[in-house]
Amino acid sequence: MSFQNPVFIPGPTNIPEELRRAADMPTLDHRSALFGEILHPALNGVKQILKSRTAQIFIFPSTGTGGWETAITNTLSPGDRVLAARNGMFSHRWIDMCERHGLKMDVVDTPWGTGLPVARYEEILSADTAHEIKVVLATHNETATGVKSDIAAVRAALDAAAHPALLYVDGVSSIASMDFRMEEWGVDIAVTGSQKGFMLPAGLAILGFSPKAMAVLDSARLPRTFFDVRDMAASYENSLYPFTPAVGLLNGLKHSTQMLLAEGLENVFARHARIAGGVRAAIAAWGMDLCARSPELYSDTVSAVVTPEGFNSLDLVTHALEKYGVAYGIGMGEVAGKVFRIGHLGSMTDVMALSGIATAEMCMADLGLNVPLGSGVAAAQDFYRTRTTDSLREAA
Hints:
Mean pLDDT: 97
Number of helices: 14
Helix content: 40-55%
């Protein structure tokens, strides 16, 4: 691929030059006062992005997967029951991790392309009168299928069942790109990473813990050492880390949160909605469908495009990379070979999106699909010319 072209994978995302420079810094003593000038603004910036006044933020040298492990090992004990739905590859992986840690899983298998089964959650929680279920897992944005689920509705299901279970949300491909309201939605642990909405290289697991989640740290019995948030919290009080931090990435995160907050979170969300709307207009013009089965499920960060039956979508992704130096996301799990994914999050503009749409059309033409060159581009151009960011923000 060419480093001069933007990527259209749903993460890692394109890195703005300002953030690349911020992360590329000389070595400093992470036990000096200078480190605190990086650490605390990064923590406070993440807190604002999560829209929480009370969350405690933890940042580990890891990825979103390490964030999942941090969430479960700090708050659960062997044999605890956890409720989750499997509606995509990443919800599946979180479930698999819980099973490997000896947790008892109540899994609701859900068709890929659909959202979280909120009504079924409420039924299961209402039936659990002994309150054996300790945690409900929810994937806000299923990156494999381009499906956004309603986290506020999951919280409402917990409340309707009068159930005390904690609510943990995978926001890896949504936080900092799509509206996320940790406090308002009653999220107890939010998990994300540095390489998507924050527009940085992979390498940081970013979490917010509610006071309710913090209250169970000492009673949890799953083993944890590197991911023990108690050690992290104690170190933060002295502007330190319990081990060597990823200083450059933390400095990048400090600048990333400043950049996002300067743009204004509602503007960030409206920009993503605008870009996604143009991509969806192009897909419709191609005569293709999204994996997400209805408009309220459409993700504003990734679109999984269903290719015609008998066509291997991996061929398009491979061709794009080899001939045009452009990267798209492959289909994963149950939709492998059936979809290709266009990531449109992080450092992205409508002009950049148009280049991704145009390249996808060239690949389709090269591979014999009946998609007229320019059809999707024209549809997206019309969308971008007539839909302003202000109108999309007001509609939200």
